[in-house]
Amino acid sequence: GAHAGRAFSLQQPQAKVSVAVGETFTLRCTVSETAGAGPVRWLKGWGSGNKTIYDQKTKDPLSRVMRAVGGSNTDFTIHIRNFQPDDVGTYYCVKFVKGKTNEDEVFQHGSGTEVSMHETALVPGMGAAAVVLCFLLLLGLFIALCMYRRKRQGGVGSPCPARTVTMGSFSTVPLGCCGGSPSTPSEVLDAESSHLPSQQSSKEENDIHYADLQPLPPAPRCSRSPGTAPSEYASLRVAAK
Fold it and tell me: Which residues form the Ig-like domain (predicted)?
């Protein structure tokens, strides 16, 4: 059990401490100078299942626990680095003294500090990075959508102006372009024959009607439906003898 000395006092002021994984937490404990021979220790848990976290007599350079004020006989505050879930529990600062059998006996202990784990909050830098990342993702999605719509609109061509061919004394005959339905050969021939001069005499029958094909102006490039191609037709007609 715990025994209280008349001139000795032990102060463990922290009731609860909440720590995030990976952080360093501090457990505070101070004692008065008037005490018998014996170490001060930090124990995790109480009773038969307790575990020694810090012992004034033992120095372990690989330990995660270190004194806040090294060499002090009154301040036994400790720091524990790299908090892990297994560190959750209640910690006690305990003063021991030598008993009649020369073994360490509990002289006085603190009321205990309950250590718990809390979720890691986003630091300002991480929050800003998350906002920038979301913005870049939305921007990329918007650009991809615009490119897709432009590609879809480019597949549907706008109507092109018709092209004409000047053929000698014949009237100009319009030629369809890819914007609309291409004229069939029969339609073009019918259009030409409707403008041919009538055969009035046998002398005219011996004449040869010809088509003088003029150089075509460059056609405007435009999209067309798959499977269709612009066609241009001209004809030569020789009168029967």
Answer: 22-93
Query: What is the DSSP annotation of 209-241?
Result: E---BPPPPPPPP----TT---------EE---
DSSP symbol at 167: B
Does residue 162 contact residue 176 with C-beta atoms inside 8 Å? yes
The mean pLDDT of 3-24, rounded to a whole number, is 85
Label residue 190 by pLDDT band (50, 70, 90).
low
Note whether residue 14 is domain-resident. yes
> What is the number of domains present in the chain?
1
Three-class SS of residue 17? strand
List Cα–Cα distances, 202 to 162, 194, 207, 208, 211, in angstroms.
37, 20, 9, 12, 21
For residue 181, being part of any structural domain is answered with no
pTM (2 decimals)?
Answer: 0.49
Domain that holds residue 39: 10-117
CATH number of the domain to which 71 belongs: 2.60.40.10
Read off the tokens for 191: 């259009």
Nearest-angstrom CA–CA distance, 51 and 158: 84
State phi, psi for 129 to the nearest 5 degrees: -65, -40
Q: Is 102 inside a domain boundary?
A: yes
Question: What 3-state DSSP class applies to 172?
Answer: coil
Contact of 230 with 182, CB cutoff 8 Å: yes
